[in-house]
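queue> pop job 88
queue> type: inverse folding (structure -> sequence)
queue> payload:
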């Protein structure tokens, strides 16, 4: 059996002496889509930021495909094949989509000769980006910016994608346009995905497993079908 894409053990992290994550352990299996849900402020975004090396935990270890990174920061995580799409898009408003992609390829060190193929790959997955690729990101709708943000992460051909609430600001149909191709990528490229999402119905449809977080701890782990019962889901929130 292959090593898990991510294996976090005993992660504790917080702000100003207050622990937001409390002894959290998590396994994202190779090729799996794992959905993380929980109430506002439960610690979901903090967990993704800790996993990506943006926020330092006070305790705990992390392995990526069985290896413990020598240092734990966004550069080493990126080099290990992990990409984070943070909540709220974060695209540069004054740059065009093409410029944003160019910058991402440049910072990932992709040689000019290989850039066209990478961009075409992303446009295959998210074809709607073609409609607005010459526009400045700041003029795009929230949903379009979200697509650009995900496209930018995919350009680096990650093996592990950490997606923080991609549905925020998106109409349900747009969310489907975004999430289904990403789910298909898992099949095509064996990508592993940790998906934080409140749009439970859509997210569960593509997920293998669900984790529910409350106040910095996991209180449920199981198959999405185990939460088909709406009452049970509400009980966990
Ligand atoms: N930079 C920060 N400084 C201080 N406290 C923070 C910071 N970031 C997050 N927190 C606090 O940590 C807790 C968890 O926040 P986090 O954003 O991880 O929750 P979440 O589950 O992602 O919530 P949401 O669904 O609202 O995005 C909250 O109480 C929040 O106020």
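queue> result:
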């Amino acid at each position: 059996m292959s090593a898990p894409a991510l294996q976090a053990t005993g992660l504790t992290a917080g702000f100003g002496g207050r622990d937001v994550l409390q002894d959290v352990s998590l396994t994202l299996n190779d090729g799996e889509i794992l959905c993380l849900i929980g109430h506002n402020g439960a610690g979901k975004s903090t967990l993704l930021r800790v996993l990506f090396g943006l926020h330092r935990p006070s305790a705990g270890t992390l392995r990526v495909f069985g290896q413990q990174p020598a240092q734990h920061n966004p550069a080493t995580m990126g080099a290990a094949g992990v990409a984070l799409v943070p909540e709220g898009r974060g695209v540069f408003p004054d740059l065009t989509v093409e410029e944003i992609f160019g910058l991402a390829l440049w910072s990932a060190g992709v040689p000019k000769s290989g850039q066209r193929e990478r961009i075409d790959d992303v446009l295959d997955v998210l074809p709607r980006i073609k409609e607005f690729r010459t526009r400045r990101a700041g003029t795009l709708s929230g949903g379009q910016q979200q697509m650009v943000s995900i496209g930018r992460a995919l350009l680096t051909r990650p093996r592990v994608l950490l997606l923080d609430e991609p549905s925020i600001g998106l109409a349900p149909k747009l969310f489907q346009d975004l999430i289904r191709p990403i789910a298909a990528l898992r099949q095509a490229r064996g990508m592993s995905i940790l998906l934080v999402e409140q749009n439970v119905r859509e997210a569960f449809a593509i997920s293998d497993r669900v984790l529910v977080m409350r106040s910095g701890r996991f209180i449920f782990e199981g198959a999405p079908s185990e939460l088909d019962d709406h009452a049970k889901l509400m009980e966990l929130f």
